[in-house]
Design goal:
Blueprint lengths: L12 E5 L6 H9 L3 E6 L3 H9 L3 H11 L7 E6 L6 H10 L2 H4 L2 E7 L3 H6 L8 E5 L5 H4 L5 H7 L3 H5 L3 H21 L7 H13 L7 H8 L3 H13 L3 E6 L13 E4 L2 H7 L12 H21 L5 E6 L5 E7 L5 E6 L11 H6 L6 E7 L5 E3 L2 E5 H8 L1
Parallel strand pairs: 1-4, 1-5, 2-3, 3-4, 6-8, 10-11, 11-13
Antiparallel strand pairs: 6-7, 8-9, 9-10, 12-13
Length: 393
């Protein structure tokens, strides 16, 4: 088990959100199983049916534990994959407002989808349950076992990363995608017709890390652009990816109005594009694209884990100047980042940063790559990706 960076605050009840396979149940067991008064796993069909038929059983079971002395101060009650029975959140809400229970129970509510919760009562817990997110393994969590080439090719879902056999890895990832479509999309009735959504998944994966063109994607998938927008919302709600918004500020020549979208794991992304059989070759376009997505995903993960709440965005002007990543850090300087996958970037790689720097007062300009020795030229810092992450966070 890797030491995860997700720092769960246990003074209050909490949600732990993360896509399937990111290790939510393992993390909860490692940290809380010894203090657990009740563990409800809604992936277990028996428990799913039990609480689905009668969610009020939760309160009666807790009352019984309290009266038999098995429920002491601040016991943990885990509800794993809570989105499968959203009505349980109403019960949790009532229990947290009942003095008899509220000071003796902390609810740990894990979920791989926020979609049903948004419609099933999660807002009732606003302020009563803290939010935590778990992602595929980060470079910092992997430590000495980190391999950039492995992540660019296979991603970093824990079970896939520890597997040594590439054939098994490939089967695991294709199964992952199939299970996602079957359980998160079809069985949860997120979309009525799975075929166009499946086509959308492939096209969206091919477009990962680029500005979303809803009309073009809709034409490729033979669906209305409004359906494409809804499909992207489904991907975000089921924690399969992240939007990167266009920068909104005082840059007059700004053009980008649509967000970019990044799939949460490079292994899953390559599975959706049916490219697992073709290794990513260093120096190729595919390698550069994968490296850029890897770095941005690392920033997203660490921004969440360290609770920095930095505002992340990108910028493309009508003149074609582009900044891959803008990190606004409140009272600290804004960082403008160009991402390159090579090990010998030049000042030419920073031309867009230099042309736009004056539009960002008190900003820093960085070129992040696989450079071995950091340097500075014309006010631009050239950093290795891992050094950049350490400085940012």
């Amino acid at each position: 088990m890797y030491q995860r960076l997700c720092n769960i605050l246990t003074s209050k009840s909490f949600f732990l959100f993360g896509a399937r396979g990111t290790g939510k149940s393992s993390l909860l067991r490692e940290q809380f199983e010894s203090d657990c008064a009740l563990w409800i796993n809604l992936l277990d069909n028996r428990q799913y049916l039990k609480y689905g038929r009668d969610p009020s059983l939760l309160a009666s079971e807790l009352k019984n534990l309290l009266h038999t002395g098995k429920l002491d101060i601040k016991n943990i009650v885990v509800i794993d994959e809570v989105q499968k029975v959203p009505a349980l959140l109403d019960e949790v809400h009532l229990i947290l407002e009942t003095p008899e229970y509220s000071n003796k129970i902390i609810f740990a509510l894990s979920g791989s989808s926020a979609r049903k919760l948004k419609r099933g009562g999660a807002n009732l817990l606003a302020g009563r349950a803290l939010l935590n997110y778990l992602y595929p393994l980060s470079s910092l969590e992997l430590g000495k076992e980190f391999s950039l080439e492995q992540i660019l090719n296979w991603g970093s879902l824990p079970a896939v990363y520890v597997e040594k056999d590439n054939i098994v890895r490939e089967e695991m990832l294709y199964t992952y995608v199939a299970v996602y479509l079957k359980e998160e999309i079809k069985e949860e009735q997120v979309v009525r017709n799975l075929d166009p959504f499946s086509r959308f998944l492939e096209v969206a994966a091919q477009s990962s890390g680029t500005i979303i063109n809803y009309a073009n994607i809709g034409r490729d998938c033979n669906v209305d652009p409004r359906a494409v927008a809804r499909y992207y919302e489904i991907l975000e709600d089921t924690l399969i990816g992240h939007f990167l918004a266009p920068y909104h500020g005082s840059v007059r020549k700004q053009l980008g109005k649509s967000p970019k979208f990044y799939f949460f794991d490079l292994g899953v992304l390559r599975t959706l594009t049916n490219s697992l059989a073709s290794p990513v070759v260093k120096g190729s376009y595919a390698y550069g694209k994968a490296f850029e997505q890897f770095f941005i995903l690392e920033v997203i993960k660490l921004n969440s884990y360290y609770r920095k709440r930095f505002k992340l965005s990108y910028l493309v002007t009508k003149d074609g100047a582009e900044i891959d990543l803008i990190i606004e850090r409140g009272s600290l300087s804004t960082i403008l980042i160009e991402i390159k996958s090579n090990s010998d970037p030049s000042i030419q790689d920073a031309k867009h940063l230099l042309s736009l720097k004056d539009s960002f007062p008190k900003s820093e300009t960085w070129v992040v790559s696989q450079i071995k020795m950091a340097r500075q030229e014309q006010g631009v810092r050239f950093l290795s990706w891992d050094s950049a992450l350490r400085e940012i966070f």
